[in-house]
């Protein structure tokens, strides 16, 4: 599979009509066992958090999955819709699913929100209503065992991911890469985004207290779950391939985490 070569200097690929995607998510989710909570409303758009309880408390794992924090990364919200439709969750998984953290950015097909704030740099001392309301919602949740942030990167040569796992829990990274490889190219570069990488996996040395502009993942590391992954689908490949890659990675991570 070759890169499309059309994303020069930014993302110029497929776009989605976010209102209709969110409408489809809202109408599909209840029949698949999800409850829904609106935690923010702005410009007649609702920010929703979906919740699916575990079937039993034995070895229960709590997982936070978020998408759509960058408005020019359509595969994330579409992957959420696909995950809901496929409805394949282990019985001991309790899942919170936030389909789109920046719907107003999607209306403009831009990374930032309409005020120009990159929400994924706004989780330390949040200036945006979007990050503030997400954090307020997170503060009402019990701790998570895993966070997954669904992203895309228009510059990459294939799928890759960032792992944070300071407590050295069982890594889920290789399982995700193995699940993605049959459906989407993996970026095998030795350096990705100026960080050393191996087989599509970046294990960054991070010190949140030294960085002022926290991405969402840093909030999770500090407050909700130290182990987690930022998944980056390569947006210079066709949209269905990227959606498939994110869905495959999420299933692999959830299945590996919840395996007894
Ligand atoms: Zn992103």
Please characterize this protein's 3D structure:
By secondary structure, the chain is α/β, with parallel strands linked by helices. The protein has 7 helices and 10 strands. The site of zinc ion (ZN) has 3 residues, from loops. Zinc ion (ZN) binds next to loops.
How is the topology of this model organized?
Elements: H1 18-28, E1 35-42, E2 45-52, E3 61-67, H2 75-86, E4 93-98, H3 103-108, H4 129-138, E5 146-153, E6 160-164, H5 173-180, E7 191-192, E8 195-196, E9 201-202, H6 216-224, E10 228-234, H7 239-258
Parallel strand pairs: 3-4, 3-5, 5-10, 6-9
Antiparallel strand pairs: 1-2, 2-4, 6-10, 7-8
The structure holds zinc ion.
- Count of extended strands: 10
What percent of residues are in strands? 15-25%
- The averaged pLDDT comes out at 96
Largest sheet descriptor = 8 strands, mixed
Specify Rg, calculated over alpha carbons: 17 Å
Oligomerization state? single chain
Number of helices: 7
**N→C terminal distance:** 36 Å
Structural classification: alpha/beta
Gist of the model:
By secondary structure, this protein is an alpha/beta fold. It contains 7 helices and 10 strands. The protein has helices at residues 18-28, 75-86, 103-108, 129-138, 173-180, 216-224, 239-258, and strands spanning 35-42, 45-52, 61-67, 93-98, 146-153, 160-164, 191-192, 195-196, 201-202, 228-234.
């Amino acid at each position: 599979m070759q890169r499309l070569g059309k994303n020069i200097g930014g993302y110029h690929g497929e776009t989605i009509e976010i209102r209709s995607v969110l409408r489809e998510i809202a109408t599909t989710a209840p029949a698949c066992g999800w409850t829904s909570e609106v935690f923010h409303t702005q410009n007649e758009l609702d920010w929703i958090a979906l919740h699916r309880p575990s079937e039993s408390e034995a070895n229960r794992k709590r997982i936070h999955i978020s998408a759509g924090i960058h408005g020019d990364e359509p595969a994330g919200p579409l992957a959420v819709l696909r995950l809901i439709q496929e409805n394949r969750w282990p019985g001991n998984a309790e899942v919170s699913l936030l389909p789109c953290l920046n719907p107003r950015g999607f209306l403009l097909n831009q990374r930032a929100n309409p005020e120009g704030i990159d929400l994924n740099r706004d989780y330390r001392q949040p200036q945006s209503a979007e990050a503030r309301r997400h954090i307020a919602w997170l503060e009402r949740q019990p701790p998570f065992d895993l966070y997954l942030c669904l992203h895309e990167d228009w510059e990459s040569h294939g799928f890759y991911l960032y792992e944070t796992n300071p407590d050295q829990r069982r890594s889920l990274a290789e399982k995700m890469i193995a699940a993605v490889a049959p459906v989407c190219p993996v970026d095998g570069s030795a350096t990705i985004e100026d960080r050393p990488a191996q087989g599509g996996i970046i294990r960054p040395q991070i010190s949140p207290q030294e960085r002022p502009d926290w991405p969402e993942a840093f909030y999770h590391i500090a407050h909700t779950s130290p182990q987690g992954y930022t998944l980056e689908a390569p947006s210079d490949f066709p949209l269905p391939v990227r959606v498939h890659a994110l869905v495959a990675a999420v299933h692999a991570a959830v299945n590996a985490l919840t395996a007894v």
